[in-house]
Amino acid sequence: MSNTNNHNPELQPPPHPDPVAAIQPDAPDFVETPEVAPLSSEKESLPMWLYLVCGFALFMAGSSFTGFSSIGRGLYDQGPGGPTLASSKTQDVVEDTNPMVVGKKIYGGKCANCHQPTGEGQPGKYPPLVDSPWVIGSKTRLAAILLKGIDGPLNVKDACYTGQVMPAQETLLNPEQMVNLMTYIRGSWGNTANAATADDVSQAKTKFGSQTTSWTEAGLLGIAPHGPDPSDKK
After folding, report:
1. String of DSSP letters for the chain
2. Domain residues of the chain, as ranges?
3. Residue 193: Cβ within 10 Å count
4. How far is CA 74 from CA 65, 71, 218, in A?
5. 96-140: pLDDT as tens digits
């Protein structure tokens, strides 16, 4: 029995790959990696216009919290003869120096509880200040009332008022506040008497400063009788 060779001479084993040829550019499995520029370590700066826009936006937002409500007023040209726009700060300064405005605030905090915001007082208790001879008459006498107060009944326009004692205000109000308060009550609710001055209060303080008691009606009439103040010039 002879040996049978199962090897097919037509079938040849594949050639071993050449390791050098496998990495050549023409090789079928070769993929060339493109060159990539290295990343730069320097940060690219933002354009200047972006800084300007962000800065303006922050300024506008901040102005709404600081009360800068007039920002738009100065951003355009009024032109020749244009109106002068007063800032809110300037208006506040004007109001703070207006005796009628300041006096009204003082009156609201010190006097309105008894004499009422309308100046009409309370029947039988607290006398009215509207058209009252004690208010629109002698300014020296009115200053004396504020300095030392009143104790006892007071007659105003044929009505007697016997309410609580009016307290002295000389330790509660400084001279400037007294001037503003006197000016306010002499020029409000239809009263048209002249404004008070610093001299009116100063003279009263000099003349009555040593007095230790409140005024009575008789004592006040001794300072000046009812009638217009001689210094009031219409």
Report:
1. -PPP----TT--PPPPPPTTGGGSTTSTT--PPPP-PPPPSSPPPPPHHHHHHHHHHHHHHHHHHTT-TTGGGGSS---TTPPPPPPHHHHHHHHHH-HHHHHHHHHHHHTHHHH-TTS--BTTTB---TT-HHHHS-HHHHHHHHHH-B-S-EEETTEEE--SPBPP-TTTS-HHHHHHHHHHHHSSTT--PPPP-HHHHHHHHHHHTT--S-B-HHHHHHH--SS--TT---
2. 98-223
3. 19
4. 19, 6, 61
5. 789 999 999 999 999 999 999 999 999 989 999 999 999 999 999
The CATH fold of domain 98-223: Cytochrome Bc1 Complex; Chain D, domain 2 (1.10.760)
User: In this predicted structure, what is the pLDDT of residue 150?
Assistant: 96
CA distance 52 to 39: 29
